[in-house]
Amino acid sequence: MPPRRRTLLLAAATLAAVVILLGLNAQRAADDLRDAQAAVGDLRDALRENDADARDGALDRLQGAAGSAHDRTSGLRWAPLTHVPFLGDDARAVQGVATSLDLLARRAGPALLDAVERADGLLAGGGVDLAVLEEISGTVDHAATALTAASAPVAPIDAGGLMDRVRRPYQDYVDQLADLDALVDRARDVLATLPGALGETRPQHYLVVLQNNAEARATGGTPQAWALLQSDEGQWDVTAHGTDADYPTRTRPVLRLTPAERALYGPSLARDVLDATMTPDVPRMAEILRAQWDAAGAPVPLDGVITLDTVALGYLLRGLPPVTVTPDVTLTGANAAQELLLGAAYQQSPAERAAFLQRAAVAVLEQLVQHAGAGDTLDALVDGAAQGRAHVVPFADGARRALEGTGLLGGTAEVGDLPRVDLTVDAETDSPSSFGLRWESAVTTVACGELTDLEATLTVLRRPVPGEPDPDALLPLTVRVFGPPGSRIDAVRVDGAPVETDVIDVGGRPAVRVGVAAGATATTVAVRLSAPSDDARELAVHTTPGVVPVTGVRRVPVVCP
């Protein structure tokens, strides 16, 4: 064989061997990345279950797989692939993800888990340990710095030119990394405001309001019981408490209502404290409650408002010793809603029911102050916020901004960056018959074009409740539907029949109110909406929380038929 041909064959064989070796290395790197993805899922499950051993094991597996993928895609073993025509961008994308994930696993992951471990000692001795809070803030700062470093390897890569099998997992990783980065940034903002909110420099006072779901209102129920929670250098104390009877119905609103508020709710929104929760705008609700507090001759100015409904109060009891409210009633996480809404107090007068709820709220708060562990308490607040049952509204501008876009603060136009639709239920009676109410909501895409046509529906019925004097009576309700910003309401129907109603502009959102009567047969309110088609491909849909634990704010995709 001529020397030149032998040389060419040898070169071709060598090149083939290199390509095979690089291909094997790419396959092994892909296997490592899949192992890392599985480890992330295991880590998420371990955190949810609060299993320290499983958490540490998952982090070890994540670090091992990410480190291996990084090694396989670094140096001379991978560099040739980044210069191969049509494949170079994909090789650089895989390399960027492996490098980023390695940084995330080695630096950001341990810092975040350290913050989780330190949180176990955050609540102690009847309050918040501010020194531990400072340590947590430091570890979260370290995690934020690590996340910035982990974002750098993937930042310059354009996903548009990648192959499908690379582009999709690459874009998923970049999106999840951005979500984690935003979450950690939000945590930093919240942690920065907490020392002041917990009384580091002066005592802070928060009005804790218990909403009674047995009388439905937009944010859960009527505010029938309250307690004043003081935080001084992190130490909590219940310094006063009472019922809605402490706030008599006013002849004039306690603050100026907007024309839209008067049209949607009437003056009772700011005259009767029981109607302050008719608005789904939680910060506005808190302003009304503060105005009621001040008008009643408040002993101290408020620094914020915390609202819980009876179901969320039960969540706070998880992990706490049982709470004795009366000799005949002991509350646990399992029975709280049933006892508070349908127990002995159900047969009593409104004033007696409110007094019973007041004793229950104070007893739970005092138990919480003395015995709560950070994990259980924070989990309860997270669950309550996800269902629209628990809200924290600080009045200091910095603390308010730190909570914007979160479930805890609530809102009216957006959840995060998603346009929002609200479907709310208000009972038009002072009886506790709402315990038997059940409702379901949906938002579906009807048509797509220059505008996207949506239909928002709320279906409600009433189940008989034991002990009711007239279980077959219809329960009058007001259903309010708010469209996303920039949308319009084109039609309203009740059980398929057109209904004439005024459309009210609420800060750029269209809203309608519809009266219905709930009975054993389901009643459906349907509202046709038209929204700009260049808006988000998802909506945040908020529905009044009832006695059944369901997600209060959920993400709904806009899917064109």
* CA-based gyration radius: 28 Å
The biggest beta sheet reads:
7 strands, mixed
Beta-strand level of the residues, as a percent range? 15-25%
Q: Count every beta strand, where a strand is a DSSP E run of 2 or more residues.
A: 21
DSSP helix fraction: 40-55%
Q: Helical segment tally?
A: 12
Secondary-structure-derived class: alpha+beta
Q: Name the poorly predicted regions.
A: 4-25
Q: Gap between N and C termini, in Å? A: 67 Å
Shape: globular
The chain-level mean pLDDT equals 82
Question: How does this model look, in words?
Answer:
The chain is α+β, with helices and mostly antiparallel strands and 561 residues long. The protein is 42% helix and 24% strand. The protein contains twelve helices and 21 strands. It has helices at 3-49, 52-72, 88-119, 130-151, 164-197, 259-265, 282-295, 310-316, 336-342, 350-371, 374-386, 397-403, and strands spanning 123-124, 127-128, 204-212, 222-232, 235-243, 304-309, 323-326, 329-331, 390-394, 414-415, 418-427, 437-447, 451-462, 475-482, 488-494, 497-498, 504-506, 509-518, 523-532, 538-543, 553-557. Strand 10 and strand 11 (418-427) form a beta hairpin. The chain is globular, with a radius of gyration of 28 Å. The termini are far apart. Residues 4-25 have low confidence and may be disordered.
